[in-house]
C-alpha cells in the first residue's frame, strides 16, 4: 500500500513539473509579446521656417564678410568659402549647442559636367553641398543611439526632431566645435534674403557631385507651372525591433534617420531628393531639391561626389 501511495505522489509531482515548464514557455516575452501597432505613430519631425527668429548679423559681429568664390578650369569648379554666411543667424552658443561661429576657410572642387552614377552614394561621411550663402550642408549628425549595451552607430539621431534639442537656429543650422556653421535643413533667413516667393525656381548651391540645388519650388511636368516639391520619405510602420539596450525599441517616430523609408510613389523626387526637369538653365537636367518635409537636405548622391567633400 505504501508503495502505491509513493507511486501516486511521484506521478503527481511529474505532472506538476511538466505543467510548470509548460507555463514558463507560455510566458516567455519572446513568444507572447504583442507586436506594436505602428501604423498611426505621431511624428516628432520639426523644421523651423520662421526667419524672424534669427537676429544676429554674424558678419558685423565678427567684423568680416561672407566669402563665396568660384573659379572654373576646364570641367572643374573650385569653390572657396570662409564659413561666414551673408544672412542673419541665431544666437550661439545656446542650450543645445555650446559652440561659437568662427571663420573656417575651405576649398572644394566639383565637376561642371555631372553625370548620374551606376549607383547612389550615401551622404554620411561627406559635406554634401555648399550653398551660395557661404556655408556648407551637413545633414547627418554625430549623435547616435546610446544604451546600457553601448553606442549603436547604425541608429543616427536627426536634428529635425522635437525630442532632443541640438541647438538649431531658424536656418535649421548649428555650429561644430571648429566654429563651422552648417545647415541641416531649410535655410529660412537665407531664403528670405533671396526673396523666394514661389514664382520661380531659385538655385541656392551645388552638391558634392556637381549637380545644382534648388529650393522646393520647381516646374511641373508641363514646364510652365511652378509647384512645391516634397520628398517621398515617410515613417516606417513596423517596430524598430531593438531591445532598448543595444538598439532602440518602439515605433519609428522620426527621432532617427533610420525611422524613415523612401516610397517612390509618394513623390517626383528620388531617394536623394533629386529629379530631372526644366530649370532656368536647361530644358531638362538633373537637380536636387531642398524640401520642407523630411529629410529637407539630400541624404545621398545620384552622381559621384568629389573627394574634396569627403571626411575620410
The class by helix and strand makeup works out as alpha+beta
Largest sheet composition: 8 strands, mixed
Stretches where pLDDT is under 50 for at least 5 consecutive residues are 1-32
Strand order of the largest sheet: 9-10-6-5-11-12-18-17
- Helix segment tally: 4
**Whole-number average pLDDT?**
91
What does it look like?
This protein is of the alpha+beta class. Helices cover 13% and strands 26% of the residues. Strands 9-10-6-5-11-12-18-17 form an 8-stranded mixed β-sheet, with no helix packed on it. Strands 1-2-3 form a 3-stranded antiparallel β-sheet, with no helix packed on it. It has a two-stranded antiparallel ribbon with strand order 4-19. The termini are far apart.
